[in-house]
Amino acid sequence: MLGHMMQQELMISDLLTHAEKAHGSREIVSREADGTAHRYTWAECAARAKQLANALLAAGVKPGDRVATIAWNTYRHIEIYYAVSGIGAIVHTINPRLDPKQVSWMMDHAEDCHVLFDTTFAPIVAAVREQCPAVKSWIALCDTSKLPQDAGELIAYEEFIAAQSDEFEWPRFDENTACTLCYTSGTTGNPKGVLYSHRSTVLHAWCGSTRDALGIGAVDSILAVVPMFHVSAWGLIYAAAMVGAKLVMPGANLDGENLANMINKEKVTLMAGVPTVWLGVLQHCRANKVSLPSVQGAIVGGSALPESLLRAYEEELDIPMRQAWGMTETSPIGVVNAPLPAHDALPGDELVKVKLLQGRRIFGVQMRILDDDGKQLPEDGEVSGHLQVRGPWVASGYFKGAGADAFTDDGWFNTGDVAAIHPDGYMEITDRSKDVIKSGGEWISSIDVENAACNHPDVAMAACIGVPHPKWDERPLLIVQPVPGKKPPKEEVFACIAEKCAKWWVPEDMVYEEVLPIGPTGKILKRELKDKYNN
Ligand code: AMP
């Protein structure tokens, strides 16, 4: 017997309509390229998204067409998110930190028909447009007066939408229709496209809003540092509309000083980004004796949260940090580190240990760990294995059938991460499968060694890689980015590691790099370091 409940498809446009009707006066504040603040409301955003929808239809965009963006986190990018998916087309977000060759490869692979880009990315457009003859129009996110001169024939976004009506009835269609295409960073081989659906996006936003995930509501002012060109800014654009939160969009300038200024001016309550961003904000706050009194929490993900960063935020800035783990393929929320009642009574240092785990099971994402032979391993917090996940916002395959071997016959996605699962549901990443260091047949977790090294006050960042060794196959090498002006002695850094890790995990040697190479999604480029230090 079927229930007698309304069958209503989950549509991204409903999020915007809800924000417009229920929270129409709540603000979206964006930093423009010239440093000025642009302010408007969810109601104005909805009106302009409707103008854009009308403009896209007039330009011949059809359901299923791919419309690319190369853009920072700003109000216009939000309008594009909602308008493109709202008419049944697909937003293809392109990471501008990629090499132009990779960008043109992706545009070709995605068969993008229109490209909307921030004027700061005109050089990328100039470099790729010859290779992308299928693109029908290149639209610069500005008004006519600010059109870049050196990127070929362009249309100004403001002109593109100006004559269009702000009346539009969002169509309803199958909730499984694709809405967004985001390519993984692809350190080996070509990048692979992950194609989200309306259903997966709305469910993910719902989950993200809950108290033990991002924990947001209408009273929040959310700083979305995590870029809209990488996994839809962790779904914040959708979750904020769902709950009616204020959005603070930092645009191009992501240095510590600019972010701290925006946080204080816009009374940010929650901020989300990768550890390197929070390191920049911390250094600015320390150097200038700045505090961030409005902030009630920071979500940190994308790579492991170092203990030193967690302690600095909680002890110096009084800002609780909540770690999250996820991937492009998981929309991205996979686990989030929210406390359990049992943690109330834990002494400080024990609580820190819990907070350094990647996060706890949330409803919607199932996890399991397997050994090399595919046998499921116990969830005892001791053994680690290959982490597999499944759920309604986890990819079931890649765009155009790429990378099929990442998906198992029984319906799981192989994350490529190595993890332990604790009996109380917390998941602990010990490594990426490809970064784990195999010394004498045993595994060394590069993440644990890096975290321990960062406990030295003069270590800003650390990367631990495996280098060939005649006896042990591989041994760890530590590469350290010192705090500017400091040079932490090897013995002291190794003592920090010995304090937290097994003795044989202490690296063979340590070298200094003034600045560690950071990849397009904010992670340390270990591949580059491995190539450099392989001998
Ligand atoms: P991407 O798909 O580019 O977002 O990268 C996803 C990968 O980033 C994951 O598979 C992990 O290896 C890594 N990652 C994300 N969040 C964390 C975290 N909190 N701790 C450790 N690694 C993480």
Structural notes for this entry:
By secondary structure, the chain is of the alpha/beta class. Among the domains are: 12-202, Rossmann fold (3-Layer(aba) Sandwich), CATH 3.40.50.12780; 437-533, GMP Synthetase, Chain A, domain 3 (2-Layer Sandwich), CATH 3.30.300. Helices cover 29% and strands 24% of the residues. Helix 1 (12-22) runs antiparallel to helix 2, helix 2 (42-58) crosses helix 3 (75-86) and helix 14 packs across helix 15. The chain is globular. Bound molecules: adenosine monophosphate. Adenosine monophosphate binds at residues 184-185, 231, 301-304, 323, 325-328, 332, 358, 415-417, 429, 432, 521.
State the helical fraction: 25-40%
Q: How are strands sequenced across the largest beta sheet?
A: 2-1-11-10-12-13-14-15-16-20-19-18-17
- Radius of gyration, in angstroms, nearest whole number: 23 Å
CATH domain class of the domain at 12-202: Alpha Beta
